[in-house]
Specification:
The chain is mainly β. Helix content is 13%, strand content 58%. α1 crosses α2. The radius of gyration is 18 Å and the shape is globular. The two termini are 25 Å apart. The mean pLDDT is 92.
Length: 219
């Protein structure tokens, strides 16, 4: 699904949601973009029944201010969810996105993967929440959020949260905010590459894991 906001549109609100029936599968790609700075609100809410699976990849690239609140509830036994999100921040973009997957059923599985690259004066915040309620035994929740700040005035933050009210579970998280590796940049330049090309290679390599997930590759 692609939402292209052209023309003089000062703001946009996008709501996506639904209920997955037993043993159903949903693969969803959501792209939003605009050719000028606007105020955007992106809301998502899905509920999965028994053995249902949702694989949701998002590329919210609207310019300006963006708030996102994305939720998946694994209500049925054996249900699964993956939430992948990629964002590039430019100029004075201000972005705050929260992604949450809640485990209610037993033997449920979730992954949250967020990555972003920040340029100029952009501000990006990612919050990822894995919640395992009491009774959701044998749940498996993991999340990874990473931001690369390419230019000195860009600012980013990541907030991984685990809320666990059950003993027999597996849960983990990883998070980072930082610039590209200077040693890797030096190595590429020592092989004869211009600085701009070397930086772009490092940026592409940083974002490559999220694009593989978006394209359905798991290796």
């Amino acid at each position: 699904m692609t939402l292209d906001l052209a023309g003089d549109v000062p703001q946009s609100n996008c709501l996506i949601g639904g209920t997955l029936a037993d043993e159903s599968n949903l693969t969803l790609i959501t792209d939003t973009q605009s050719n000028q700075a606007i105020r955007s609100l992106l809301l998502g809410d899905f509920v999965s029944a028994r053995d249902a699976n949702i694989d949701w990849s998002l590329w919210p690239q609207t310019k300006g201010q963006l708030l996102g609140d994305l939720n998946v509830t694994l209500a049925g036994t054996g249900s699964r969810a993956t939430l992948n999100l990629a964002r590039y921040g430019y100029q004075d973009d201000w972005v705050g996105i929260r992604g949450q997957i809640k485990h209610l059923g037993q033997h449920t599985f979730s992954r949250i993967n967020m990555r972003g690259v920040l340029y100029e004066n952009s501000r990006v915040n990612f919050t990822s929440i894995g919640q395992i309620d009491h009774g959701a035994s044998d749940a498996d929740a993991d999340q990874e959020s990473r931001l690369m700040t390419v230019e000195p005035h860009a600012k980013g933050s990541v907030n991984p949260v685990l809320v666990i009210d059950e003993n027999d579970v597996r849960a983990g998280h990883a998070a980072s905010v930082g610039q590209y590796d200077e040693d890797e940049l030096y190595y590429l330049q020592s092989r004869g590459l211009p600085m701009a090309t070397a930086k772009q290679i490092l940026i592409d390599n940083f974002m490559e894991p999220i694009w593989r997930l978006r394209n359905g590759e798991v290796g």
